[in-house]
Amino acid sequence: MKEAGGHPGGARQEAAGGGSPTPDTRPSASVNMAVEVAGIRMQNPVMTASGTFGYAEEFEKYFDLNRLGAIVVKTITRLPRAGNPPPRIVETPAGMLNAIGLHNVGIEVFIRDKLPYLRRLSPPLIVNVAGESVEDFRELTKRISDQEGVAGIELNVSCPNVAGGLDFSSDAHLAYRVVKAAREATPLPLIPKLSPNVTDVVTIARAAAEAGADAISLINTLVGMAVDVRTRRPKIGNVTGGLSGPAIRPIAVRMVWQVARAVRLPIIGMGGIVTAEDALEFLIAGATAVAVGTANFIDPEAPVKIIEGLEQYCTANGIQNVRQLIGCLEIPSGSGE
Amino acid sequence: MRATVAFNRLLSPAYLHLGMAAPGFPATFRAGEFIMVRPAWIGDPFLPRAFSIYRISTRPPAAESSAPIVEILYKVLGKGTQCLARMEPGQEVEILGPLGNFFTVPDVQRHVVLVAGGIGVPPIAALATQLAETGNWQLATGNLVVFLGGKTHEDILCVKDFEEAGASIHITTEDASLGTRGLITDLLRPFLLMPPAPRAESRGEASRLTMYACGPPGMLAAVAKLAGEFGVPCQMSVEANMACGFGACMGCAIEIKGETRSFKLVCKDGPIFDSREIVWQ
Hints:
heterodimer, A: alpha/beta, TIM Barrel, four-stranded parallel beta sheet, 16% strand, globular, B: alpha/beta, Elongation Factor Tu (Ef-tu), domain 3, Rossmann fold, 2 domains, seven-stranded mixed beta sheet, 5 helices, 18% helix, 32% strand
């Protein structure tokens, strides 16, 4: 269904000496796209954001999943969760509100039914977990790290749609305790995903770093609300929901930039990335990798288009290694900073 | 997949018929399946919209493109459909599909009762057409009955499709501008109390009715109640706010009966559900 070939970077490919390692149809690029996040080696910096990519198999008919830099699956909890009553989502200007309520199969079914499929895919797998207590996080982390084929664990300490979900990352002490407990339970890279619904995200990021986090994901959704003026009811069953999409991108870029300057950990930047240009904003602001989220719903091929667009940007700008872009933000003297 | 608007015609005030030439789209579909449609750009409106497929047609052989034309009917209700209504032939749209499950037709011959309210008609009209086209179905007059309802005559669409399918047609409008004044269920109830006599060769099957319904939630709930009361199996095409259409966002939850509170996804587990399965709000 997609046009074949015709990659704009094709003209420069002869310089690469035919070195594409995989026999797929991807154009071999002269750009080194590989990055490493907390010891997780990725063939390119584009991953999927938890909660927007299901358990990956939902997307297999739309593109070759092995082209992704890494795969992050939907949040897993200790027990299955039915999720919130509808309506769970509503469109808002340049974005959407959601209150899914961590609808998921639970860790045991995940391990039995979902993990074997994910293991067969080549991109590193990052499993996202959420607990209702510090103990939950410890147990989940332990259980996941006992499994084959898991490259890292993302700690969802910031889901705004479940009781207590936000607490873990709105308080530096709690964030510290959760990450610390998880740290003691696993040797795998730990990546807390932080909430933007805080006074100072840098304080929380520092606490996570001190507790032993290996990288930080920024940002989860912003708490929002929409009202149906006809019925005078909230448009979301849960009353409030998490705002995602391009509407939140400037906030996400700002937070990535702030944390990148303050904490010496790699950052996975996310929040409203739809195009390669959006992804570039995050890399330039200091993210080592980016995650595509809500865009997956609108265009299931979005991650691949973003990977291709990043390659094209590098080629067009004479950048041999995508890592040159990370944190290359230039702030002109005399600016506010 | 990229598609090109082939036509976008007004059917009656606020209702349009959109055809999109979609190279690579399957030339056939099963009634009940849906597609996601959005403009070729990502912006405002932000999310794609779900529409039941009404028809897939092909252009005459002489036409410059042989791409199947995927057809939907829609009512201009909000930002997404307003945007669609402004689309002109030649403009590009993005579509995804066919998605979801579809109506299943019983193998034992039954009276088929179709119920459609307002803009819920496209999958029901598609089903009527497909039933009429299915060779082994052998419809005779009286075996296919359709109930169409709306606020006014402007909400009654696809009558010609049902006529061509050989259906006997019952129409209700709330303002009596067409058919009988009232709601669909005002006619459906007496019908279920006294269904038509079966065809000679299917004698003994008089009680064997199957219903198929699509329409606003209030109508579906009322029809589901009637179906339960008369013990008639009923498949319903339901609607929900949806972001992706293929099971990733988990936004289109619908509550399912059971011992514990549980939900299914309209896009992946539906959009067709057994009416007895759903918890009606």
